[in-house]
């Protein structure tokens, strides 16, 4: 089996060491990007591609964890938002399906991309956490150069093997030399070092309780493997896209994605402005004339946040409303935001 066709999943033990070992093997051969003559894609073609990959043309019969794995992590700042997002995309979706996946540990609520709350497929959480924390860890290492990172990680990780509240984390982390008493400094300290997840009922539709946090048991991949996996997930869900688009969506520096780009096979296109767009080989590119049904999207729906240049989903006339900041729910017509 070629590297280009081998599945990313690591088999039955895809949540453990074997998963990351197999993922590393998958990406172990560096593959050069193929140039298909730089076909130019129109805005309508890009809109149709986004709608198809985000299941906004036809709903699909998937369980919640698999749907989130394909769609990429769903914004969870507003508790009902992931449920609305899945209802727009999954055939026969029921909110109990997602709540059951959260209770079973197949879906995790946590803070990752752009330092905001998301629901993420549990097996992919280590990669998203590793990529998201890179810039924070550079700051951590400068700020706390006097601390033994390995020892602090081990000590704090052992303590967080049991559920803790934010108040408990503030008190415990505040004991380390150099940690200031600003409310979020100890929290960022811990979340940068460790992959923490919120315990259920966090992530349930009506949950308003104060979350408790625990260390996720899955091992972290190295930075290059994490970037490669996240890039694969992103391009499958949102491609074709520019390098700037991916960095904007993930909230990371280009330098953190660079090792991943070297490991992922891509093809090149251009948009009507001449910007290079990258995509996975043989990913779907529906015709511009594809019928795109009306869809009701969630607050901060990931399709709206997936690009630096959002013209394919938000028309220029609508962009001044800053719906991606307000979080107003939106309605798409012909694949683009037409109402909120």
Describe the structure.
- The protein has 340 residues and is an alpha+beta fold.
- The chain is built from 15 helices and eleven strands.
- The chain has helices at residues 17-26, 43-53, 64-71, 81-87, 95-104, 125-132, 134-143, 149-159, 166-173, 185-193, 223-238, 243-250, 254-261, 302-305, 323-326; strands at residues 34-40, 74-75, 107-111, 117-121, 196-198, 213-215, 267-270, 276-279, 295-296, 331-333, 336-339.
- The strands form four sheets. It has a three-stranded mixed sheet, with no helix packed on it.
- Strand 3 (107-111) and strand 4 (117-121) form a beta hairpin.
- The radius of gyration is 20 Å and the shape is globular.
List its salient traits:
340 residues; 12% strand; 15 helices; three-stranded mixed sheet; three-stranded antiparallel sheet; alpha+beta
What is the topology?
Blueprint: H1 17-26, E1 34-40, H2 43-53, H3 64-71, E2 74-75, H4 81-87, H5 95-104, E3 107-111, E4 117-121, H6 125-132, H7 134-143, H8 149-159, H9 166-173, H10 185-193, E5 196-198, E6 213-215, H11 223-238, H12 243-250, H13 254-261, E7 267-270, E8 276-279, E9 295-296, H14 302-305, H15 323-326, E10 331-333, E11 336-339
Parallel strand pairs: 1-7
Antiparallel strand pairs: 2-4, 3-4, 5-6, 7-8, 9-10, 10-11
């Amino acid at each position: 089996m070629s590297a280009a066709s081998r599945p990313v999943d690591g088999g039955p033990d895809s949540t453990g060491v074997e998963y990351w070992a197999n993922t590393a093997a998958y990406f172990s051969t560096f593959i050069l990007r193929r140039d298909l003559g730089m076909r130019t894609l129109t805005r309508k073609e890009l809109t149709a591609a986004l709608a198809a990959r985000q299941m906004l043309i036809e709903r699909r019969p998937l369980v919640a964890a698999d749907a989130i794995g394909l769609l990429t992590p769903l914004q969870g700042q507003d508790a009902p938002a992931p449920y609305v997002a899945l209802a727009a995309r999954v055939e026969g979706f029921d909110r109990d399906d997602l709540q059951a996946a959260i209770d079973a540990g197949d879906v995790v609520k946590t803070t990752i991309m752009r330092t905001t709350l998301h629901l993420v497929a549990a097996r992919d959480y280590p990669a998203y956490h590793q990529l998201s924390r890179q810039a924070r860890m550079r700051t951590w290492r400068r700020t706390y150069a006097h601390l033994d990172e390995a020892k602090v990680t081990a000590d704090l990780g052992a303590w967080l093997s049991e559920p803790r509240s934010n108040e408990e984390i503030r008190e415990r982390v505040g004991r380390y030399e150099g940690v200031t008493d600003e409310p979020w400094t100890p929290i960022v300290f811990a979340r940068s070092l460790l992959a923490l997840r919120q315990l259920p009922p966090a992530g349930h539709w009506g949950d308003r309780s104060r979350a408790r946090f625990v260390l996720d048991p899955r091992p972290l991949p190295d930075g290059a493997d994490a970037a490669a996996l996240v890039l694969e997930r992103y391009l499958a869900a949102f491609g074709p896209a520019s390098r700037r688009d991916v960095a904007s969506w993930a909230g990371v520096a280009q330098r953190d994605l660079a090792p991943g780009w070297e490991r992922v096979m891509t093809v090149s296109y251009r948009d009507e402005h001449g910007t290079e767009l990258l995509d996975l080989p043989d990913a779907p590119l529906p015709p511009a004339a594809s019928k795109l049904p009306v869809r009701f999207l969630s607050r901060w729906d990931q399709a709206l946040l997936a690009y630096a240049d959002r013209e394919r989903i938000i028309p220029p006339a609508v962009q001044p409303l800053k719906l991606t900041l307000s979080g107003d729910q939106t309605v798409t017509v012909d694949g683009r935001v037409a109402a909120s």
